[in-house]
Amino acid sequence: MADRIDVTEALKDLPLWGAHGGDRPAIVRNLAFADFNAAFGFMTRVALLADKVDHHPEWSNVYNRVEVLLTTHDAGGVTDRDIRMARFIDEAAGAMGAK
Amino acid sequence: MADRIDVTEALKDLPLWGAHGGDRPAIVRNLAFADFNAAFGFMTRVALLADKVDHHPEWSNVYNRVEVLLTTHDAGGVTDRDIRMARFIDEAAGAMGAK
Questions:
Q1: d(CA A60, nearest CA chain B) in Å
Q2: Could you read off the pLDDT of A13-39 as tens digits, one per residue?
Q3: Which of A19, A23, A48, B71 maximizes the CB count within 10 A of its CB?
Q4: Mind telling me how many Å the CA of A41 is from chain B's nearest CA?
Q5: Structural domains counted in chain A
Q6: Which of B40, B51, B61 sits opposite A36 (nearest CB)?
Q7: CA dihedral sign of residues A70, A75, A78, A80
């Protein structure tokens, strides 16, 4: 099982992410795309990776907006798996012009 | 602009849907699939239709679960567009073994 990383520590290298305000350690990012097509295209790229590495975001979508929460359930907090996923999300979102 | 339909009226023919408990008229359905792959496959089918008809669900996904909310922003409530989308969702979800 992956080791938990302190959320504040994890966020040091992820300036576009914040700490989840809820009841468990998690990191979150809100993204806005040009339209629904771009937002869902982004989600599809993330979904393909998520299914491949068996590590899934919790996320919601309203038109051009996507909110992503990452945490590792088995570990009860944020791990390297979330950081790797967050980096991929930042890369994919940047390539698709997300704000 | 499409005419608003009373939520109670709309739900009569949509037994798998409920009224949104929030601050605006909307209908909701919670779905559970076999796994993430099935859940996102379902979302992709819905997304393709949504983009085609320019009517988009508000939705969230956690692993095999999907929560969908339908409302028509322009009309400030539920319209035929939501009912048509709900019927497609029921059909697509049924075909993919959703509970």
A1: 4
A2: 999 999 998 888 999 999 999 999 999
A3: B71
A4: 10
A5: 1
A6: B51
A7: negative
